[in-house]
Structures are given as structure tokens and as C-alpha cells.
Amino acid sequence: MDVYGLLGNPVGHSLSPPMHEAAYRELGIDARYVTFEPEVESLEAAIRGAGALGIKGLNVTIPFKQDVVTMIELDDLADRIGAVNTIGFEGENRTPVGYNTDAVGARRALEHHDVALDGARAVLIGAGGAGRAIAFALADAGATVTIANRTEEHATELAQAVPGATGHSLGELESLLANAEVLVNATSVGMEGDRSPVAADLLDRRLTVMDIVYQPLETRLLREANEAGAETIDGAWMLLYQGVEALEQWTGQEAPVDAMNESLRGELSDSSGAFK
Ligand code: ATR
Question: Does the reported pTM lie above 0.70?
Fold first, then answer.
């Protein structure tokens, strides 16, 4: 039996085990996906130990995504983003290599909905860990990225690292959105209290609006975008596609996207607990 795992703290409510195990069943792979909560001091030992034990692959989540960067080799994208959410063990020595499938996951979520990114003008709200991965994903796909953030300085700092990007305050959203085709919320606003990072009257039918918040699935932003006639993409799509991309990285097989999606949406509708 193969073993895959998730390193984070806490990971008790993670949706990744059922989603990945749904994929193993569909592919006929004899494998389990388990969660681990190491202390940050033992993180590097945990990764190397996982390799020594023959664990096939690891995901990494909060709070370890940045810590891992200094501990293992990285692929180019994870290196540019400065965060790792997926580790593969490669070569005869089972050398751990870090990837960032959050970025590719965001791109694939948009592509799944036929959003053309090459040449698109995209407004990204948020400049934290998730915002950083999405900014690189959008720019790599050929979009012009405009980053708006509560703390403007964080947006301008991120924009300096992303080709062609500019950084702004949330107060500039009205003029930024007037010229955009794509809007992505990469902040946690919307998770609690039915709040939206964007005033409803700035939304219209020309926009495709993606939220990374998946609890609730229909955030206030998506509800108001829908009411304005915009296309909407909920937060479960990025969660799904980061897992799809990780599974394909580990197994070299095409992931059973529908089975994984069904599992994820079943879990999200079954429970009102907090998820990671
Ligand atoms: P993650 O790694 O999940 O992206 P993070 O690094 O804490 O989380 O980043 C959170 C993002 O949400 C940041 O862009 C943050 O803005 P600041 O840079 O100003 O902190 C944004 N954010 C969090 N709470 C917010 C709120 N109430 N209103 C607007 N933006 C908020």
C-alpha cells in the first residue's frame, strides 16, 4: 500500500484525505492519504523521514508553506513564489523536491470555466500567501495583473516580484475594475460575517469573479457578482485543482477530476465545521 500525507497544524478538518482517496479508488491505486501535525522544529526531520519511510508524496499547508522553502530543493515556480504546498520524492535517493500547485490550481480552475487568461486584465485582491501564488499563476498565463490590498505596501511589494504587475490600495478598486475582465478574491474576507471585499455596485456582467473562500461556498462576493450577471467560480475549484495537480505530479497519471470534485463537494455540503 502506498502512503501520501499532509503536513500542517492543525489538519484535523482537512478535506484532502477524502478527496485524494476518492481519486485512488477511481484509479485503482492501493493507497491511503493521512494527516500529520509536526512541530516546526521537527519539520525538516519529518520530511526526510517521510522519504526514508517510502511515503510517496506530501502536501504542506498552514503554517508550514514558507518554512519548507529553506529545507528542500524547489522547482522554479515554487522558488519564485517562495512557498511549497506539494513535495515529491525523486530519484534513487528519494530527494524531496518542493512544488507549488496552489498557483497551477488557480489557473486550472479558471481554465476549467473557459476563462481566457492570455491578454486578460485581472484584478487580484489580496497579497498574502494565496495571493502571491495566484499573482504568479495569472502572470505566467499571460494576464496583466493588478493587485489591490488593504495594506497597499504589501501589494506594491508583491507587484515588484511579478512580471508586469502593479500594486494598489482597495480604494482604487473602482477604476481598476472598470478595465478588467477577471477578478479574484485571495483574502479571507467572506469567510465570516457575510462580508465582501468589493462594493456590489462595482460588479457587472463583463467580469468573471473567482473567490478562494470555500466556506461558505457562495460568499457575499459571489452572490453579488451573480446578481450583477457576472460568471462566478467558487473556492472549491482552486482547492480541487491544487489537489488534482499534486496527484498528477506524484503519480504521473491523469487525475479523475470528476470523482475528486464529487468527494470535495459532498464533504463541503455534509458538514458545517471549519476546513483547511
Ligand atoms: P493567506 O496566506 O491565506 O493568503 P495571509 O497571508 O494572512 O493569508 O493574507 C491574508 C490577505 O487577506 C492579505 O492580503 C490581507 O491584507 P493585509 O496585507 O492588509 O493584511 C487580507 N485581509 C485579511 N483580512 C482582511 C480584511 N478584513 N479586509 C481586507 N483584507 C484583508
Answer: yes
